[in-house]
Amino acid sequence: MFQCVIFDLDGVLVDTEPLLYNAKKEYFLKNGVHFTHEELCLFTGAKYYDALRNNFDYLSDEFKEQLIENYKFTIDLNYDEIKNPHAEKLFQDLRENGLKIAIASNSPMEKIEAVIEQCGFGNFIDYYASGVSCKKAKPYPDVYLDVINYFGLNPKECAAVEDSDYGLQAAYESGAYVICKRDRRFNYKQLGAHAYVDDLDEIGDILWKQAKDFL
């Protein structure tokens, strides 16, 4: 039996990715950069400055640093309006079955806390960790290992719910059982998960039945 389920934030618990995608696209266009859809998808699930620094060799390092320094995310989001409609029911089911619930995200702590507060998740979340606070963010497993170590669990006692390629890699390398929430909007490959769902309301059946062979 699993002891803990660890959730990614953006794209899993709240559908922020389209808004983030459009905000970055507008910002880059204002600065004379015409990224393709495929190039903009490299930012989804990643830390903004990591994605910018590690790609786009045709841009100078100096210009990249300018784009990093000047970027300000200014969209006033109401996270409750874009939260996953199945999240709270799933949290209730997990809690009733004695499982811990955590968040592991590349978003900064203040954003994670804002989502938890606005969406009313506070009574369910036992712990949350940010890749910004780790030595290495996703696709490295550090943020997942932070959560797993906090609870003193074996990775095999944990399930992770992810959508982006960066997040799936991080979750898989942590040793957790990986459930992928399908998303076809951002050119994700979504490889390497142990199970796939179209939405969070399918996760319960996987945890109670299909995951037994993993333990």
Strand residue content: 5-15%
Per the CATH scheme, the topology name of the largest domain is: Rossmann fold
Helix content: 25-40%
Number of domains: 2
CATH architecture of the largest domain: 3-Layer(aba) Sandwich
CATH top level assignment of the largest domain: Alpha Beta
Give the full name of the CATH homologous superfamily of the largest domain.
HAD superfamily/HAD-like
Q: Whole-number radius of gyration?
A: 17 Å
Distance between the termini: 7 Å
Question: Segments where pLDDT lies below 50 for 5+ residues?
Answer: none
Roughly what is the average pLDDT, rounded to an integer? Answer: 93
**In which order are the strands of the major sheet placed?**
3-2-1-4-5-6
Structural class, judged by helices and strands? alpha/beta
- Write down the overall geometry: globular
- Biggest sheet character: 6 strands, parallel
Could you state the order of secondary-structure elements as H and E? EHHHHHEHEHEHEEH
